[in-house]
C-alpha cells in the first residue's frame, strides 16, 4: 500500500486564523451559507456541499484555494457542524489524524477544539444547548489512550495493517539487546515454560531452568547445528538437542473456535437469506484453508497432535428446510472441522425462529455461557485461539476469551456504524429498528479486548486519503445522551493486520479453463436466464445476443440492487448494448419477514413498472448453489458480460472476488473494500453509487468499446484474473493467520500485566453501559 505520509502543518487554529483574515470576504460568505443551512435547527451540513460552495466562491481566484487552510479544508474536511453563529470543522489532515476547529460566522473568531470539545459541540446539534453546563462537562468519556501508552505504536500510515511485522521487530529488539544479556530471555523462557507445563516436554525440558540456561543452550545448539547438513532429519539431531535441554516443536494452535452466532449458518441452502451472505462463505472457506495449513505445519515440525476446529453458531429449531436445527454438522472436505450449534435461550425458553442480527443482543451472554462447556467438550480442552466474526461473534469471543484467558482474534466483516451514516449521532432515532447503541458499544468493547484484528483491506482500518476507515471511524464519535468516545481505537495500533480472503478455487475459476467447466449445468442456466417469467424469475430477456450486466447480492438497502436497476433504466445507451440480470433475495414481498428486504422488493417492482423494463431485465431469487453460481459467472463471461457491485457501502465484497476469479470485468462501488480489490481502469472500474448517472455512463462506454473490439473486454478480464492470483487466495490467507496466531499468543503472554488494566476498564464498560443497553432490546416473539 502506497499511502502518503502525514504532511504535517502549522497548528490548525493558526492556519485557520490566517485564512479568514487573508480572504475575509470569501470565508464570511461561506460561513454565512453554512449557518443558513442551519437556520431552522442546528445540524450537520454536508462536507462535500460546503467544499463545492467554497470552490464556487473562489471562482477564478486561485489564491483562495491554494492557501493552506483552504487546501486542507478541500482535501480533508470530513464534517461540518453548524450551530449558528458557530461552525465547527472536523479535519483529517492525513490518514488516522484528526483535528478540530470552530469559527464564528459573526466575527470570524477562530478557536481550535480538542476532540471532547468538538464532540460536545456536535451533541448540541441533537440535544440542543445543554442548560446544565455541569451535565455536559461530566458526560462519560470513553478513552483507551491511557492504557495504550505502554503499548508500542506505529507512526506511519504506510505501516497500518502490518502489525505483526512491527511487533516482531519490537519483540526481537527487546529480546536480543546485548545490554541485558541473558535477562532479555526472561519473557521467552517464561513463555516456553508454561507451554511445557501444558503436557509432555515440548520446546524445552528440565535441564533448562532459567533464562541463562536457555541462552547457553541456544548458543551451543546453533554452533552444533551449523556443522550439519540442513536437510538432516529431526530424529538424527534429537539426542543432541535433548541433551542440551531442547525438545521437539509445539503446535501452539491446534484447537480453534470460530464464533458466528446469528444464523443462518450452514453449508447448504442458506446464502442470500437476510443476514446470511459473505460471512458464511468466508468462514466455510477459511476453516478448510486453516485445517490444511495446521496439518501441513505439524508435518513440517514432526509433531503429532489432535487438530480440532469448531464453528460455533446458533441452533434454530425452525430451520426452514436447512440443517440449522442440527447440533453438529461436519464440514465437507475436512477431517477435523465441524459446526456446533447451541440454541439461544432466554427467560422465555429456547428461541425457535431466525432472529435478525440487529435483534440478537439479549441472547448473547447466556449463549456464551452455554457455549463454554460444550465447546471445551468438542475441542477436547480449552481453545488456543478464539476467532470472532461480526459484532455478535466478536462480543461472544470477548466474553469467552475473558472467561478462559485465550488469545482472541476479531474479524468485523462489516462495522454497521460505517454502513449506516450517522448511526452514532442519530442513534436515538434508529435504536428501535437497529439497536445501534448496543451494537456500537459491543463493537467498541470487542475491538479493545481483541489480541489481534484481521481485516480484508487497508481501507477497512484506515480508509484512503479521502475516505475514513471503518475502524478509524471508531476513534472518536459521540452518541448524545449516552457517552462520548474521545479515543475508541487507534488505527496505528499493532493489533491490526490485513489478511485478505480469496474465493474457493474449486468453485470460482476462469471461464477459459475449458476442461474444468460444468457444462452439464448450462441447460439449466439458460432456462434460468432466458426462460419465461415464473414465481422465481421476473422479466424476460428478449434479445439474447446482448452481453449481460450481472449483479448478485442479498436484497438489503445498502447493497443497492434497486439503485442499479434505476441507473440502468435511465440510461438509453446502456439499455441498448446490454441486458441486466440480477440475483437478489426474493421476488414476492409477502414471503419475507425482514423489513428491509420487503421494502427493497417492492421498490424493484415499482421500478420495473415505471421504466417498462420487462424485456431487458431478468430478476432471479437468491441462488444458493455456489458451484452453479460459479458457472453462472463464467457463462456470463463467455458472452462478454460484466459484473456490477453497486453497494452504497461494501465492507469487502466477496462477489467481486468471485466474479474476477471467473474472469468477469467488474464495475465496483468506490465506497469500501471493492475500490481496493479493483484497480480502476485496469482490472475493472470504480463506480460512485451516489452518482448513478455517471456510473451508468462508465458501463455504457465500456460496452460500446467492447462492441467495437472484443480485445477491450479481454484486456480487463486478463488483468482481473492476474490481480486475484497474486493478491486474493485462501492459501496466502491461512499461512498468514497461523503466523499471527503464534506471534500474538506470545505477545499476549509478555504483555499480560499491561493489558490487565485495559481488561478491567472494558469489563466495567460492559457491565455499566452495555448490559443496561441490551436489557432494553426486546426479546423476539417465538
Ligand atoms: N450469494 C449467493 N447467493 C445469493 C446472494 C449471495 O450465493 O443469492 C453469495 C455470494 O456468492 C457471496 C456471498 O453470498 O459469496 C455474498 O458475499 P458479499 O461479501 O458479496 O456480501 P455480504 O452478503 O457478505 O454482505
Ligand atoms: C460481510 C460483508 O458485508 C462483505 O463486504 C464481506 O465481503 C463479507 O462479510 C465477508 O467478509
TrEMBL record:
<dbReference type="GO" id="GO:0005985">
    <property type="term" value="P:sucrose metabolic process"/>
</dbReference>
<dbReference type="Pfam" id="PF00534">
    <property type="entry name" value="Glycos_transf_1"/>
</dbReference>
<comment type="function">
    <text>Sucrose-cleaving enzyme that provides UDP-glucose and fructose for various metabolic pathways.</text>
</comment>
<comment type="similarity">
    <text>Belongs to the glycosyltransferase 1 family. Plant sucrose synthase subfamily.</text>
</comment>
<dbReference type="Pfam" id="PF24861">
    <property type="entry name" value="SUS_N"/>
</dbReference>
<dbReference type="InterPro" id="IPR056736">
    <property type="entry name" value="SUS_EPBD"/>
</dbReference>
<dbReference type="Pfam" id="PF00862">
    <property type="entry name" value="GT-B_Sucrose_synth"/>
</dbReference>
<dbReference type="InterPro" id="IPR012820">
    <property type="entry name" value="Sucrose_synthase_pln/cyn"/>
</dbReference>
<dbReference type="GO" id="GO:0016157">
    <property type="term" value="F:sucrose synthase activity"/>
</dbReference>
<dbReference type="Pfam" id="PF24862">
    <property type="entry name" value="SUS_EPBD"/>
</dbReference>
<dbReference type="InterPro" id="IPR001296">
    <property type="entry name" value="Glyco_trans_1"/>
</dbReference>
<keyword id="KW-0328">Glycosyltransferase</keyword>
<feature type="domain" description="Glycosyl transferase family 1">
    <location>
        <begin position="540"/>
        <end position="712"/>
    </location>
</feature>
<feature type="domain" description="Sucrose synthase N-terminal">
    <location>
        <begin position="17"/>
        <end position="123"/>
    </location>
</feature>
<protein>
    <recommendedName>
        <fullName>Sucrose synthase</fullName>
        <ecNumber>2.4.1.13</ecNumber>
    </recommendedName>
</protein>
<feature type="domain" description="Sucrose synthase first GT-B">
    <location>
        <begin position="250"/>
        <end position="530"/>
    </location>
</feature>
<feature type="domain" description="Sucrose synthase EPBD">
    <location>
        <begin position="162"/>
        <end position="249"/>
    </location>
</feature>
<dbReference type="InterPro" id="IPR000368">
    <property type="entry name" value="Sucrose_synth_GT-B1"/>
</dbReference>
<dbReference type="InterPro" id="IPR056735">
    <property type="entry name" value="SUS_N"/>
</dbReference>
<keyword id="KW-0808">Transferase</keyword>
Amino acid at each position: 500500500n502506497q499511502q502518503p505520509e502525514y504532511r504535517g502543518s502549522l497548528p490548525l487554529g493558526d492556519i485557520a486564523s490566517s485564512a479568514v483574515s487573508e480572504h475575509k470576504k470569501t470565508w464570511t460568505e461561506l460561513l454565512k451559507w453554512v449557518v443558513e443551512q442551519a437556520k431552522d435547527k442546528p445540524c450537520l451540513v454536508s462536507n462535500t456541499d460546503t467544499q463545492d460552495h467554497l470552490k464556487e466562491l473562489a471562482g477564478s481566484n486561485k489564491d483562495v484555494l491554494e492557501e493552506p487552510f483552504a487546501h486542507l479544508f478541500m482535501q480533508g474536511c470530513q464534517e461540518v457542524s453548524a450551530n449558528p453563529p458557530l461552525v465547527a470543522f472536523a479535519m483529517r489532515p492525513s490518514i488516522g489524524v484528526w483535528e478540530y476547529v470552530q469559527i464564528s460566522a459573526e466575527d470570524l473568531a477562530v478557536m481550535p477544539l480538542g476532540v471532547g470539545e468538538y464532540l460536545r459541540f456536535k451533541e448540541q446539534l441533537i440535544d440542543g444547548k445543554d442548560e446544565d453546563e455541569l451535565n455536559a462537562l461530566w458526560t462519560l468519556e470513553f478513552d483507551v489512550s491511557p492504557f495504550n501508552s505502554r503499548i508500542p505504536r506505529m507512526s506511519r500510515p504506510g505501516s497500518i495493517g502490518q502489525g505483526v511485522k512491527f511487533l516482531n521487530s519490537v519483540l526481537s529488539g527487546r529480546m536480543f539487546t546485548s545490554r541485558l544479556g541473558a535477562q532479555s530471555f526472561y519473557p521467552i523462557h517464561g513463555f516456553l515454560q508454561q507451554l511445557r507445563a501444558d503436557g509432555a516436554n515440548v520446546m524445552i525440558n528440565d535441564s533448562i531452568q532459567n533464562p541463562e540456561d536457555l541462552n547457553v543452550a541456544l548458543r551451543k545448539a546453533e554452533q552444533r547445528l551449523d556443522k550439519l547438513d540442513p536437510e538432516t532429519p529431526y530424529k538424527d539431531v534429537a539426542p543432541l538437542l535433548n541433551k542440551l535441554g531442547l525438545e521437539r516443536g509445539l503446535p501452539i494452535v491446534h484447537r480453534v473456535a470460530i464464533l458466528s452466532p446469528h444464523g443462518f449458518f450452514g453449508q447448504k441452502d442458506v446464502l442470500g437469506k437476510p443476514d446470511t451472505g459473505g460471512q458464511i462463505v468466508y468462514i466455510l472457506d477459511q476453516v478448510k484453508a486453516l485445517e490444511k495449513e495446521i496439518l501441513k505445519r505439524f508435518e513440517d515440525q514432526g509433531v503429532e497432535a489432535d487438530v480440532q476446529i469448531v464453528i460455533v453458531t446458533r441452533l434454530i429449531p425452525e430451520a426452514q428446510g436447512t440443517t440449522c436445527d442440527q447440533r453438529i454438522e461436519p464440514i465437507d472436505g475436512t477431517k477435523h472441522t465441524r459446526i456446533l450449534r447451541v440454541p439461544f435461550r432466554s427467560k422465555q425458553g429456547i428461541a425457535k425462529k431466525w432472529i435478525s442480527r440487529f435483534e440478537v443482543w439479549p441472547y448473547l451472554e447466556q449463549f456464551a455461557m452455554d457455549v463454554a462447556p460444550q465447546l471445551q467438550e468438542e475441542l477436547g480442552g480449552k481453545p488456543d485461539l478464539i476467532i470472532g466474526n461480526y459484532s455478535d461473534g466478536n462480543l461472544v469471543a470477548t466474553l469467552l476469551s475473558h472467561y478462559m484467558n485465550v488469545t482472541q482474534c476479531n474479524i468485523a466483516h462489516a462495522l454497521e456504524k460505517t454502513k449506516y451514516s450517522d448511526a452514532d449521532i442519530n442513534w436515538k432515532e434508529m435504536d428501535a429498528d437497529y439497536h445501534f447503541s448496543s451494537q456500537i458499544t459491543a463493537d467498541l468493547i470487542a475491538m479493545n479486548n481483541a489480541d489481534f484484528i484481521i481485516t480484508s483491506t487497508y481501507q477497512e482500518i484506515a480508509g484512503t486519503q479521502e475516505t475514513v476507515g471503518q475502524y478509524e471511524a471508531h476513534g472518536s464519535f459521540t452518541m448524545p445522551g449516552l457517552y462520548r468516545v474521545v479515543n475508541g481505537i487507534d488505527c496505528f495500533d499493532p493489533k491490526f493486520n490485513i489478511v485478505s480472503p480469496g474465493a474457493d478455487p474449486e468453485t470460482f475459476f476462469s471461464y477459459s479453463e475449458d476442461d474444468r467447466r460444468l457444462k452439464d449445468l448450462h441447460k439449466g442456466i439458460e432456462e434460468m436466464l432466458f426462460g419465461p417469467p415464473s414465481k422465481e424469475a421476473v422479466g424476460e430477456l428478449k434479445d439474447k445476443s446482448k452481453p449481460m450486466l450481472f449483479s448478485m447480492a442479498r436484497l438489503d438497502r445498502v447493497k443497492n440492487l434497486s439503485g442499479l436497476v434505476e441507473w440502468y433504466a435511465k440510461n438509453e445507451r446502456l439499455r441498448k448494448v446490454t441486458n441486466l440480470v440480477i440475483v437478489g433475495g426474493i421476488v414476492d414481498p409477502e414471503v419475507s419477514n425482514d423489513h428491509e428486504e420487503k421494502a427493497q422488493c417492492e421498490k424493484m417492482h415499482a421500478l420495473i413498472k415505471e421504466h417498462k423494463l420487462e424485456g431487458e431485465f431478468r430478476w432471479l431469487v437468491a441462488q444458493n448453489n455456489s458451484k452453479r453460481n460459479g458457472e453462472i459467472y463464467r457463462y456470463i463471461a463467455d458472452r462478454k458480460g460484466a459484473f456490477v457491485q453497486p453497494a452504497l457501502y461494501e465492507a469487502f465484497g466477496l462477489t467481486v472476488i468471485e466474479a474476477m476469479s471467473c474472469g468477469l470485468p467488474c464495475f465496483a462501488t468506490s465506497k469500501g473494500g471493492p475500490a481496493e480489490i479493483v484497480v480502476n481502469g485496469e482490472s475493472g472500474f470504480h463506480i460512485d453509487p451516489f452518482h448513478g448517472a455517471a456510473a451508468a455512463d462508465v458501463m455504457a462506454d465500456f460496452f460500446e468499446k467492447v462492441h467495437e473490439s472484443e480485445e477491450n473486454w479481454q484486456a480487463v478480464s486478463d488483468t482481473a484474473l492476474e490481480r486475484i492470483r497474486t493478491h486474493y487466495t485462501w492459501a496466502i490467507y491461512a499461512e498468514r493467520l497461523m503466523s499471527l496466531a503464534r506471534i500474538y499468543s506470545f505477545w499476549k503472554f509478555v504483555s499480560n500485566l499491561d493489558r490487565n488494566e485495559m481488561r478491567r476498564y472494558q469489563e466495567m464498560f460492559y457491565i455499566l453501559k452495555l448490559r443496561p443497553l441490551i436489557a432494553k432490546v426486546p426479546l423476539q416473539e417465538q
